[in-house]
Amino acid sequence: MGLFVNTRRKNGEKLETTSLRSYFYGLLRHFKDLGHGDVLKLPEFSRSKEILRARLSQIKALGKGNLVNSSDPLEASDFRILKDKGLLGFSNPNQLRDTLYLVLTTQFGTRPGVEMRQMRVGDITKHYCVQEDKFYLQLKERITKTRKGITAPRKFPVKAFEFPEDRTCSVVVL
């Protein structure tokens, strides 16, 4: 199945990882529907999965991965715009919710959904760092589907340091 090495769209662009996987498993399903069974066990197709895996890693190395159209990271100016428009802050429940969501996803790397719903009041604590002369928030991570808790989830605890010059900084306010 060397066709996965050179497969392209009509306009000449190479396919993304999800498209390649879809074609690959679509062909396997087609062969199975024709009564050929699992063609990956046949000698003619023994290297097809290896070729696909190599092509997928090559695409990911180019930075394309599954999310070719993913958004750019937020800059400091983007945060200021959100604050100026009244979308972030601590004045009302909606602002508080949106600010916490942004802090948890950008500074602590938590994923929306189960991970955020499982959080409790004591999971985020405020500490003082003598070396930096700053306060910081520290997240106590819980066991999740991908963070099993067998070993420490990360090599160091997740921290968000304050920006004293910003009066609306989540660490300064808390």
Question: What is the structure about, briefly put?
Answer:
Helix content is about 40%, strand content about 10%. By secondary structure, the chain is mostly helical.
Percent in strands: 5-15%
Roughly how many Å is the radius of gyration?
Answer: 24 Å
Strand order of the largest sheet: 1-2-3
* Structural class based on helices, strands and sheet pairing: mainly alpha
Structure write-up:
This protein is mainly α. The chain has seven helices and three strands; from the N terminus they run ααααααβββα. A three-stranded antiparallel beta sheet has the order 1-2-3, with no helix packed on it. β1 (124-129) and β2 form a beta hairpin. α2 packs antiparallel against α3 (48-61). The radius of gyration is 24 Å and the shape is elongated.
List keywords for this structure.
174 residues; mainly alpha; three-stranded antiparallel sheet; 7 helices; elongated
Secondary-structure map:
Blueprint: H1 3-6, H2 17-33, H3 48-61, H4 76-84, H5 93-106, H6 114-117, E1 124-129, E2 134-139, E3 158-161, H7 170-173
Antiparallel strand pairs: 1-2, 2-3
